[in-house]
Amino acid sequence: MPHSKVPAADATLRILTHLATQQGPVAAARIAQDLDLPRSRTYDLLAALTEHGYVVHLGEERLYGLGPAAHELAGGHLRQVPLARIGRRVVETMVDEVGESGHLAVLRGADVLYVVEERAPRRPSLVTDIDVRLAAHLTASGRAILALLPAAQLRALYGREADFSARTDVPGPTSPRELRELLARVRAEGVAHEHGEVTAELASVAAVVRDHAGYPAASVALTYPAPQEGGDLAARCEAAVRGAAAEITRRLRGVAG
Q: CATH assignment of 72-251, given 3.30.300.20, 3.30.40.10, 1.10.10.10, 3.30.450.40?
């Protein structure tokens, strides 16, 4: 390991990098052991990172995971390379084939952040523009990703009824239990749906993109008129997002579902 002139900064960056490689939150003692750091220093650095939002502390389980601020840093990279660049061409092809608007989104805390947006000609305007953030539990894009998160990370994001909100008169999940039941259906079906929870009279369907570790890196979605839900268009949109998500996963050398 190269010698650092700033040991505290070096240890801090090593902790963040280590957390980013884990499948879910981990204990401080394990972090200290894996990185060969003194436990007292590890706890001090984790406390500082938690205070600034780079780490989330799951108090009841005594575990630590990446926080919203760390995801914000990653967002700048994802908007440039490689996910957005790889995904944009796939989304464009999908939209051309189906004729409905498509997007690629990533999870940022309890929100989804849209990094690719492709509008189909003569289709309704959408709120899902690039850099727009929406509550993940209300969107098909967010549900597709949330369904594959480790249970501890999901509880950290949506552990209380106060964590839930609404945008329209169509209710989404309003409690951790309702969300878990919804996400169980998403895992069983392989796609996530949303019908009017984001914009009245519009529906969306999304499929997850996985990285090299099988972690949900992003999701691909199509939005279409809600009255068409259940018909031929809905079926075509579902098939299209499945294919697009599989193609982006392949190009990222991710693990297929």
A: 3.30.450.40
